[in-house]
Amino acid sequence: ILLLLRNPKDVATSFYHFSKAMSPLPSYEKWDDFFAAFMTKKMPWGCYFEYLSAWNKYAAREHVMPVTYEELKENPAVGVKNIADFFGISLTEKELQSVVERSSFESMKKNSPKTHGALGNALFRKGGVSDWKNLFSDDQNKTMDKAFADHVGGTKVGAKLKYDVYCKA
């Protein structure tokens, strides 16, 4: 099982923009309103911290490979190689580079009209890391830090997320 994780602050930021683009989902005019709903478990897809906590029970198992969006962005070739190794797939250098290129955010966004139809624009917005810094207030930052510490601080999933690197202001 490949367990793909992303830092909670960028998850909230991404969900905020996604919910604004998807009319069936509750829409929030203001970030502050969305943040309050996100932190009080009022999202249609559930609570991200509960999701992380639930997966933490399995993260150390031999057949589970936790990987973060941030590490894949930082070094996609190493990430793809590690994933291929985990699944017992050997790749030539040419195949590895092909996977890296075709799975890049930019490539997926470009191809999204073909692969995801009208949802493409909502699913592929920026693809960056640390965009949360453009929305979070100091108080929201502290609130999220506390929720992270309470739910997954000191756990394998918490350590994997490198919270101190990607989530500190």
TrEMBL record:
Top-level lineage group: Eukaryota
Keyword field: Transferase
Sulfotransferase domain location: 1-155
Coiled coil: none
GO MF term (any one): sulfotransferase activity
Transmembrane annotation, as ranges: none
Enzyme class: transferase
Enzyme Commission no: 2.8.2.-
Pfam families in the cross-refs: Sulfotransfer_1
Family of this protein: Belongs to the sulfotransferase 1 family.
Protein name according to UniProt: Sulfotransferase
